[in-house]
Amino acid sequence: MKKTKDFDCVEMKRKAAERIYEETKDMSLDERIEYWRTKEREFLQAQATRKARSA
Hints:
The chain contains two helices and no strands. The chain is an all-alpha fold. It is flat and about 50 Å long.
């Protein structure tokens, strides 16, 4: 019996790449740099929040 996949990592990665492309396709280089800096700050803040909650 073949098991169906509950989660497809490749599909998730492709969807994320498509979403990011759509969000950034009309941005200049400087705008894309700021986009990624903002995403990094958001990620680090979320990570710190999760770490504080688990401690």
